[in-house]
Amino acid sequence: LAMEQRGLDSLRTAAADAEAGAGIRLDVVHFAPPVTAPGKIVAIGVNYRAHAEETASVPSTSPLMFAKFPTSIIGHRAPIRWDPRLTGQVDYEAELGVVIGRRARRVSPEAALSYVFGYTCINDVSARDLQARDGQWVRAKSLDTFCPMGPVVVTADEIPDPQALDIACYLNGDQVQHASTGDMLFTVAALIAACSEAFTLEPGDIIATGTPSGIGAARTPQRFLGVGDEVVVEIDGVGRLQNTCVPDPMA
Predict the structure, then answer these.
(1) How many CB atoms lie within 10 A of CB 135?
(2) Taking the model in full, what pTM does it have?
(3) In this structure, what is the dihedral angle of CA atoms 187, 193, 198, 200, given to the nearest 10 degrees?
(4) The CATH classification of domain 35-245, taken from the options 3.30.230.10, 3.40.50.140, 3.90.850.10, 3.40.50.150
(5) How far apart are CA 143 and CA 44, in angstroms?
(6) Predicted confidence (pLDDT) per residue in 105-164, tens digit
(7) Domain boundaries of the chain, sorted by first residue
(8) How many CB atoms lie within 10 A of CB 247?
(9) Is 195 helix (H, G, I), strand (E, B) or coil?
């Protein structure tokens, strides 16, 4: 009974705060990742023509898919860390993330968006030296903390057209990437259809839809992340994801 009474008291307090317009300061909130344990993170490579050009890649006739491990996920304002003995070429990639809301298998592009729960900001952090050395991308893309995500998931009803969003990345306040999601080679709907043709998408699965041009590895001189750098991914209507690079305490 005492526990029930405490619960009722808490509800009354919350209701009173809501009625009074009391809020929570976001600058003191700890943000967990909006999706903590997805079954799959399907990432898409070379999905903006300008990015294909800057990396001297030939655009594919079908989406280039690879995986990131769920253990790479961190939330808004969580630190990005890496062992400098493992990689010295850590790069940023601003991306629109798609969170699947219901089981999808062999869905059509026309029906694909009805399977979306919502959208979020993703930074597909990448170790370029490992990417080049390994010949495939899993390790380079899946180091711990290499998938910042958030701050929240914006539900699909709030984003009527995922191909009409401005996306940008800022490094220490400098804009280093900027594009429209309308520049994607494969739309969100096309990506969902293509993924579901190959494998089953489950609720909570995430598709990272590819990054625009402006990555650090393609710049002259190259611009990789270092300790103390602040990276921001910003997508209109979706949010602003900020993370800072810090030393790896295990290095």
Answers:
(1) 6
(2) 0.90
(3) 120
(4) 3.90.850.10
(5) 17
(6) 999 999 999 999 999 999 999 999 999 999 999 999 999 999 999 999 999 999 999 999
(7) 35-245
(8) 13
(9) helix
For 139-176, give the DSSP string: HHHHSTT-EEEEEEEEEGGG-S-TTS-EEEEEETTEEE
Q: Is the peptide bond before 70 cis (omega within 30 degrees of 0)?
A: no
How far out from the chain centre does Cα 83 lie?
22
What is the C-alpha to C-alpha distance for residues 251 and 247, in angstroms, rounded to an integer? 8
Cα–Cα distance measured from residue 236 to residue 132, given in angstroms and rounded to the nearest whole number? 32
Residue with tokens 């030296």: 129
The model's pLDDT over 9-19, given as tens digits with 9 standing for 90+, comes to 655 665 666 66
